[in-house]
Amino acid sequence: MINFRGFVYAPINEQGVVFLFGKIAHEFGMYVELIRTGYPDCIAKRFIGKDRWEDLRIEFEFRSSDFQRHKHDINGADMIVCWKHDWSECPKSIEILELSEEIKNLENITIEAPDKISRDSEYDMEDYLKRGSQESVLLFRVLDKAILKIDGDIYNKTHKYRIYYYSPKRVFANVKVMKKGLNVLLFTNAKKIKGVETISKDYAQKWGRIYINSKHDIRTAIRALKKSHKLITYCVENNIPTGWYAEADE
Prior knowledge:
The chain contains six helices and eleven strands. The protein is globular. The chain has helices spanning 14-24, 66-69, 99-102, 125-129, 134-150, 218-237, and strands at residues 30-35, 42-47, 53-63, 79-84, 95-98, 155-158, 163-166, 171-177, 182-187, 197-198, 207-212. It starts with 13 loop residues before the first helix and ends in a 13-residue tail after the last helix. By secondary structure, the chain is α+β, with helices and mostly antiparallel strands.
């Protein structure tokens, strides 16, 4: 059972993967142009920053290794969207989107009776910032500007509880504006980064946390976020799991 955005049970086949992907494609900056029974299954576009979009040829599989079992041409797809990634010899030319890991990084949205639904899943940043103090909001604006300067392709998206930053292919950091200061979660790939503390030994092994309480903390945070961005980019290029529950390499 995953009970994720109205999807009660985890996918058990390729059709379940297609349905789940359709519910969250926008979370990865994608929109779908075509889904078909031929190969590849899906034609989509993904936002990669600076008003640029890339074409993606996507094949849906329950397990990534099914791609090889089905004897698909590796030159005919750019991405495999699957529930479980178990194909260790997958070519680096094919990006893997493992939904069982990725949904752990996304906010769940409670499904309510139609007459009780009050708003969409998109949130306005200025409305979100009203929950913070004047000092916290000022800190956030400095940090936000600095994060977006790390790379021109980075963009942010406001959710209910946090503001997320995309690499642009994956979330590599998110910020919670508090009454006093900022709480920043960032991808570390289980590497030690100065100023970043471990979240837990049992989960989020590849993620860390840093608190920003004054402008003096911004410089340390930005150095850490630059490192985080490099790490997430490397992991995406090499199909290394980046999810909240991804385990650190031995």
